[in-house]
Fold these 4 entries.
Entry 1:
Amino acid sequence: MKRLIESVPNISEGRDHAKIEAIVAAVRETPGAIVLDVDPDADHNRTVITFVGEPESVEKAILNLVGRAVELIDLTKHKGEHPRMGAVDVIPFVPLRGVTKKECIELARRVGQAIWDRFKVPVYLYEEAATRPERRDLANIRKGEFENFPKKIQEPEWAPDFGERVVHPTAGVSAVGVRPPLIAFNVNLGTNNLDIAKQIAKAVRGSDGGLRYVKALGFALEGRGIVQVSMNLTNFEKTPIYQVFELIKCEADRWGVPIVGSEIVGLVPQAALLQVAEHFLRLENFSYDQVLENRLAQCLEES
């Protein structure tokens, strides 16, 4: 059985498809690394790349990706709706099969050191790999973004985990961490009033008293003339997608605006969607073994 780690690097480029493909190619060209999904967003000016591999392949692929991104992305010319602090803004590692959280933390530390040594991009460790409690939350690290990081990095409490207090002039800084599977879930509203999206995001955001495992921001999608509640769901088992959607719908109704659509960025665990089906269909005595693909996979393993 192969040992598998998932990595979901977010790069600060969502519009130039030639650059995106060149950066993704750095992963595809790495033996043993399998690209599962590439999801660019022009409004956010950000691309989420999902790939898997054995630990050694993932480590090599990430360093290849960072090297290519540092060459091609210049944050002094970057504008987008999504907050960012680095050309490769965030690099999470997710243990999938046969790999422990401890091994992923060790991988995050090796990668963080290598990014500084090779590319002179300072690195912060976050979530399960964090060296300080205040660094577990990626939003705390990213606060201030690229433009304000030269000042922030000089503050006593914001020395990077790897590297000197010198922000890379075009690639900024990066965060490397370890986390469980995360769902990037966005809900689009039928209005161009950004304040409404921000108010709804505040209502669902865990840090403001909303749902415990939800991080949310309100963004304008200028290309479509609407606004969006953009979220990361950090524990879908404790805060399922349907609960998030229902609360947003309730808040949107209060503001008199419709939901015009929703989207999942990147990949999503099957169990998270089955939760939604079970809830909205009001399925009784439902078992995940009733899903054809699940039962088939189980039988093949047993045979």
Entry 2:
Amino acid sequence: MRQSLAIAAVAVGGAFGSVLRYLISTWFLQRFGPGFPWATFAINVSGSFLIGFVLQLALSRAGFSPYMRVFLATGILGGYTTFSSYSFEAYSLGVQGSYVRAVAYALGSVVAGVVAAYAGVVIARLSSPT
């Protein structure tokens, strides 16, 4: 894989993923307000599902281009998901005294993310010809 092409694939994918994250975050904030970080939760769980799905397809399909893998997984999904926002939002809930919400958000995000990644792998395996 040529590094310059891989970097271009990641850059273009990252731009798409970041814009998508912004649009989804704005939509969630308008619909649900600032009480709980639902946008980051939904983005990180859906991103976990999608990365499990994409990487399983990349492993199981011979024709899956390495450039497509870095475009989708590192670029789009790397720009789309956001561990830094998740961390700060969990911290902010705790500072505000919402300790139960902070713990529920922190643990719930990790558990839901792992389950979603597993579901993505399973669905990709089911959709792949054997």
Entry 3:
Amino acid sequence: MKIIFSNTSGIDIEQPQPASKFVPDWYKNMESYTSKERKPSGSGTTTATIKRCMPVFDAITAGYIITSPADVYVSIKEKQQYFEWSTLGLISFHPIEQAPEHPSRKPHAYPKWNNPWAIKTPKGYSTLFTQPMHRESVFTILPGIVDTDTYTAPVNFPFVINDPNFEGLIPKGTPIAQVIPFKREGWQMEIGSKEELIEQNSITQKLQTKFFDRYKSMFWSRKEYK
């Protein structure tokens, strides 16, 4: 499958890249085992850290990352945050009245990253736009899903500054959104029966036969985003 990113800015800017190229330093630098050795803990488990957790790895490396194409400086004037940027009309604003009860609301307007990238996915595929996962950031975008097989104009990203007292630079190249394409399908919920419980117990017992990389070696499938 292909996802197409088209630059609508009219100038040469940093291109989106697979999220695997933006693995955060805290994750890269972390030891895989608290003991720094691949050995059991002495109590039937291992000393594995979150670095050995494949669900976290899959979240960090899912999809693609769009970065800020220019510097943005945040300052506080009269108890309100102001944004300055030099090019591209990088930030615009939603009035607070558009989402007055959103859990991430702040006292004033919602700033919005004006994304220069138009995205197109194959028929039947949509895209989740979310805050880059497991990455430290001074801001958080409000997640959304767009049917990018039919809507191929740029999707912008409203956000909030996490600390209302933050002042400083958001540098060019900062990850601003994680872009994860997925296939639209109809789903129907059911409550599991005895058969599902038997299956779950069987999986638990199978996991207990290994010390290391249980989920990875028995159940995990590699995901590819190029």
Entry 4:
Amino acid sequence: MVLTQMELPAEGLVRQLISTYLTNINVIFPLFNPQQLTQTVDRWYNNPMQRSRTSWAVINVVMAIAQYCSLGQFGFRHADSSVGSVPDCLNKAQSALTEILMGDVELANLQVVLGLVIIFQGTSDIRPAVFLISTALRLCQVLGIHRSDSDFYSNANPREALQWRRVFWIAYILDRDIAMRIRQAPIQQDTDINIELPPKKPDKDAAGFVSTPGMYRNNFNVFRAHVELSRIQGYVYDANFSVRSQQLSPGERAANCQAIRLLLKDWKSRIPATLRAEALSRTQNYLPCIPRFLCMLYGTVVTCLGQLCQVNSMDFHWIDKLRHYGRSITTSIGEPCLPPPQPQGWNALVNECREFMPLFISIEDKGPAFIW
């Protein structure tokens, strides 16, 4: 492909979208190193003869994420029509996929694939995200970035190793989210990971950390919390949908589900009070991206509890029982009418939903990722 076909909008517009992405998205979901991403844009405009398909794809996928996550609209077009809509940017990034995947495995290649997954997982058709996350995780495994003892880390400098670990954990998170949505086993198994989790205390760039307001101000790593919650999502699959779980007795399955509810309760207990659902629905002290991001995490908790109960609006047997109970109350006078038995964990699910809904309602411009 000739260079004139790899077009980008005016430099000022691109830098505006890159800044939006770094400020509102990458700060808590650190797919890119901000300095390296900025250097990619610098090289593109300052050294035209050194442009590559990979860097062109990186810039396009970042522009797509910036627009999509800012307003949560897949078809959103920037006020300046020269920028292109989210699908326009995605199509350009996708056009470079074959070359990217068939070439040497570089960090930027993996970031492009994961950037595409971030957007596709929020659309009505989950299939592209399923295929792409499978590819991304196989690339991670080939490189060995899920294992601290791999040759890869022994040859990488500390800054490179840090970013590779972050990229792996993002792939891990996306894998668990997609697996929960399609009720299939995650691709990456916990037993084959031994790299360290994102830190509890801020490192050099404090990526993933949120500074909580108030008298007892501290820094909390929501990125680490996201990884920990993703690990619990895998436990939910193991307890309810795996082949092994179907071979257990009802008592054993109930005990496993209750253990996971306790893990979720413990996970929530470690979230600072100012970052919990009830507080976020009332405060305006954070960037808009933070309540949105945490709202999606709390929505994941609700989904986990709902799957542990194995009762939802699509369970017609359960719905029929509720309808029968409702009709019995209205038609019977003075006669005892017993409600259908509650599934284990029902009260925990109801309480979680009640805490979650004010935050959910307070989030404007919800995209498909909130609703699936």
